[in-house]
């Protein structure tokens, strides 16, 4: 699409488009591996920023960066609020490099990009934003599985970020021992299968449909385009890193790769009332563990599932996260 037409379409939605660029961060020890960092910049230069962390199966530009119309994404909304808004693609996702294990048979490698590795990648992105982009404040907004490495990073480097939003966090649903069976490097799904899952038909009341119309029009196509295809795979089969699924299994059994009490940044837990991985009781118990945080918010958004950011009520999510970040501006880590 021609740039001039994009501007016309953006004007028709009443939204001002912001500049969006992608930086590539070299991964130490792996000369050919790079992390993709997608950033939208506000009209007025800013030294405050928001870093979006995606979930287990699709990257930034299918999540916080997905445009429902020209100029209409969570990242662009955040940039219009005056923040440098960035989204990180983990290794194996989106525009970041594919580790070698993603190209071979699934059983020939360890799970790709688990929470431990993902937390290191977040650290690289935050360091880049501080040192190369001149950001003084970095607020993290993480979704689903992404809340696990994001909280692990916040616990390990408590003074590196200004706040931590955990949207749809994974919480324990059973008391058990995580599986120790051999796990693959990657798993496979088709775009239509994943889109069908996002409709949450088995959870929502009959006749209730929450996904934005643009999801049915372009999301599956864009998801397919975001994945590197391997010769011999079925045309519609997408290879997704398995590390996040291994982490979810471990956390649902009650075993976290971090201590919540080590987090000293303000913490916000937000979720939909139809979320199938966290409810009011689970969210309250989860948030209570962040005893080192100087400010803790919890919010349930009604008429929302685990993917509120892709649904009709997404602006309630945008506004509440923005309000939380704004509320933290005069708080130093560890200060009441």
UniProtKB/TrEMBL annotation:
GO terms for molecular function: hydrolase activity. Residues 50-312 form the AB hydrolase-1 domain. InterPro entries: AB_hydrolase_1 (IPR000073), AB_hydrolase_fold (IPR029058), AB_hydrolase_sf (IPR050266). Keywords: Hydrolase. SUPFAM superfamilies: alpha/beta-Hydrolases. The keyword Hydrolase applies. This is Alpha/beta hydrolase. It comes from Dyella acidisoli.
